[in-house]
Amino acid sequence: MTRIMAMIGDFIFSLDEKSFDALTHSKEYSFAEIPKVNYYTGEQSVGKDIEELSISGTILTTKGGLNPLARLFAIADLKQSVPFIYGYGEVMGDFKITKVKEDRSLFLDDGRSVRVGFNVEMKRVRE
Question: What is the DSSP string of the chain?
């Protein structure tokens, strides 16, 4: 039985095949300064908040297949928002993949890599 860590659209991260080592969730709040005469500067919330996720890890091709990130690149190529869901069921919302970085290492004599490091960056989409 595959235990799901998280999903980006239909791309599944699991401990059995394709796992991640770190997940960073950040949210930036926008404020504008309002000058006041003879008093401290005030602030007012402006615009929408920017929410980002960054996921990184290493996949062994002996578990995740020769091209373990192919489906993730295909999702990113669509340039559409997809849901991000934790394996325990929490839906974080819809995100667009803004960057996928792949680092291959530990090569065999036929050119296949055994280790694939990756980093995925996403921004929350609010319609």
Answer: -PPEEEEETTEEEESSSS--SEEEEEEE--EEEE--TTSPPEEEE-S--EEEEEEEEEEEHHHH-SSTTHHHHHHHHHT--EEEEETTS-EEEEEEEEEEEEEEEEE-TTS-EEEEEEEEEEEE---
| Contact status, residue 111 vs residue 87, Cβ threshold 8 Å | no
> Terminal CA-to-CA distance of the chain, rounded, Å?
36
Q: Delineate the domains of the chain, giving CATH numbers in brackets.
A: 4-124 (2.40.30.200)
pLDDT tens-digit map of 38-77: 888 888 888 788 999 999 999 998 887 889 999 999 999 9
Give 72-114 pLDDT, tens digit per residue.
999 999 999 999 999 999 999 999 999 999 999 999 998 889 9
- Select from 108, 118, 109 the least CA-distant residue to 73: 118
